[in-house]
Structure formats: C-alpha cells, structure tokens
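thread: overnight batch results

M.L. [08:02]
morning all. the overnight job finished for the chain we discussed friday. pasting input first so we're all looking at the same thing
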Amino acid sequence: MYIITFVFALTLSLLVTPLTIKLGRRWGIVDRPAGRRRHQGDISRLGGIALFVSFVGTGLLIFGMSAAGWWPPMGAEDRKLLTGVLLGSIIIFAFGLWDDVFELSPGAQFFAQFLVALVAIFFDIIVERVTLPVVGLTIFPIWITYPLTIFWVVGMINTVNWLDGLDGLAAGVVAIASLLFAVHAYQLGQMIVALFPLALAAACLGFLPFNFHPARVFMGGGSMLLGYAVASLSILAPAKVATALLVLGIPIVDVAWLIIQRWRQRGNPAQSGRDHLHYRLFDLGLGQRQIVGLYYTFCAAFGLMALLIADRFFKLIALAVLGVLTVSLLWWLSRAEQKSD
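M.L. [08:03]
and the structure it wrote out:
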C-alpha cells in the first residue's frame, strides 16, 4: 500500500513535470530574469500543475482503493478530513494557476488563502487538541480554535510561498516535512492518513530533478498548494504541530521576522523582496546549492527530533534553540547590511 502510493505519485510527478516545461514556454507563462529572480533565460512557472496532478491524483487513488476494499477501509472521520485536504488543495491550486497566468494582487491571494482556511474548518481540520508543556493535553474552545486554524493555514501557505525563492528549496523542505508527517501518522496508527503526506513527499521528489539548481521549471502558484497541504496534513487529529514547527522552524521565524521588520519600516508585509533569509545568504556569497543543502539539513535534523524525542520539554527547548539561532542570524545579517550601506 505504501509502496504503491509512493511510486504512483512519484511517477506522475516525473511524467507531468516535463510537460509543464513545454506548456509554459508554448503559452508564454514564464519567469524572466528580473528583480528577485536572477536565473538564466525564460523558465516555465507552471510546475505547480505537476504537483497538483501527482498529489490530488494519488489522493483519489487512495480513496478508490479503500472504497473498493483492496486497501483498509477509510473511517467516516478520516474520509471527511481527507476530503477537506483534497478539496482545499483543488481550490487553492485553481487560484494559484490563475495567479500564474494573470498575476493576482496580494489581496486576491489573501482572499484565496482565507477561503481554503474556511474549507479546512468546515471539514473539521482544526487546531483543537494540542499537548502543551506543563499543562499537557489542552482542548481549545471554538473562539480560539477557529481563529487559530485560520492563522495556521494562512501562515503556512505564506511561509511555503515565500520559501520558494531558490531552486529546489520549497519542494525539498516540503518533501522532508511530509515524510516526517507520514512517519508520525504511521506511529499513531493512522494507516490511511499516513498515505497522504507520503504522496505529497513523492510528488515533491518527482518535481525536484527539474526544479533543483539550475532549475528548468518553477512551481509558481503550486507553492500555495504545498502550503495548504502541509498546513492541513499537520493538524489532522491528533495534531502534529510540534513536528511542523520544528521541521519548518527556520522559514516560519524568517516570515515572522520579515513581517515585523517591514511594519517597523512602514513597508508592505505582503510585498515580495530579497530580504528573506535565503536571499541574504545568497547575496552574502553562498551558492544556491549550499543554501538549499543547509536548509535541508537543519529542517531534517530538527524534524527528526520531534519524532525521536518523546519529552515535550525537550521539544520546547529544541524549538527555542532553533528560534534563537535563526533570529541571531537574521539580526547579524541586518547589522552587516546596515554597516555596508
């Protein structure tokens, strides 16, 4: 069951991605070197189609195999939750594809993100039960659960979207996070649920050979698809928030730092720019592959801690250490840039 899921999603991604390269060039839906993009030549930004076809197509396969009785039956609760994952993925992908063609405003993108957050809530994909240090299992009331879920979904979509700045960075980090989610779900006995993050990881891995530096295709609006998939899969009951925070800690802290700094400077927090951590490291002289490799290493290392360390106090300490290291690096880079100016 797990082998079929992984191979099917990987094969779809490997087959469809070259087609998106040709389609992007044929239809003129390409990114040209300018602004924060410093690649060579025109590159298709329709790679999100391959991620969508692979992930959603494999999700439908899982539903079909379970309904046919060839795989373990899907419980009513899991069916509802996973339907929300797929439906939200379809909606956010449609907006992402629209953005690839017409380049939507930040307001329109935020509306789409808010809409799929409501879709998640409708299908009970909510941040309701979490295990906190000291207090243990905590069940939030609705007036906290719903806003927190919207914040989590919208925040994760933007985190992955902003992470998509260097070749192979977003796809690789999401692949690592998804593999860890799959292992975590399997350990919790969520046999069918574990197949979905496994499919997402395979979709990203099939896309990576074409997206790794030097990239031949960009995912474009597909980053919003990945963001929603990661957000929803990480909060399927029981929530895997600690795993998500540790594996995606660096990009999450980077996003929070940027929003605060842009507000302080009276800039637009939603505006794209080259002030992200990965761009700053690139401008410092590190190569794209070096930066991406560092991200992979830290995300995988801290993500594994969430699986291997049972004590939630140690997880909190690891998260605090990761946050302090990332903030310290961002602060040092900001000071260095001010001195150079």
